Amino acid sequence: MKRDELIEVAGYLISITPRTRRGLMEYRLKIMSLGGGFMSAYLHEPKIPLRPGLRVKVKAFLSRQLGSPRWVIEKIEPIKDEKDLEPEPTLVEEVVRGAYPIVCGKRDDKAFSMPAEEEVLSKIPSNLPQKLYCIFAEGGSQLKIVEALSEKEYEVFKKTLSMLLEIDRDSLESEKIVMKYLKEVELPRLP
Fold this sequence. Notes:
Layout: E1 6-21, E2 24-33, E3 38-43, E4 55-63, E5 70-78, E6 88-96, E7 102-107, E8 110-115, H1 118-121, E9 130-139, E10 142-150, H2 151-184
Parallel strand pairs: 3-5
Antiparallel strand pairs: 1-2, 1-4, 2-3, 4-5, 6-7, 6-9, 7-8, 9-10
């Protein structure tokens, strides 16, 4: 593989879109680099619980199979020492379309007016005002909305993450019990 076909990116997981491709489940991840740039990459089997706002380090390769080239994630891991971006409850009151679309509303009981990408605008319902959970991030020199989730989507992510963490805890506890049992069991000696 050529050197320009590998990439390592550290940044924030902005959106997660499950889909099927050729009958197999995959996830389209939108990642915002620490420099404010965006990339889309695809993941087949997540080894970590995914959620919007998670700070991650990604290693991906450029796949040229089946149509247009796309980045496929080889390795993804959370960056533990850094703060994640948290979806914040936001009242979106208006979207002003133009050369630079602007979203207006309230967050923390303070009015805001900031830019958003077209992909984010497509997730904002037309019947406003509407309570959404938005992820805000520095993009270059300004703060902007990089993701918008409905209350239902946000609750699904929260419950799924909680369930996965509980499964991990139960799995660790079960493993400890089995290891303790195996240490206590005396195996017969062979003659």
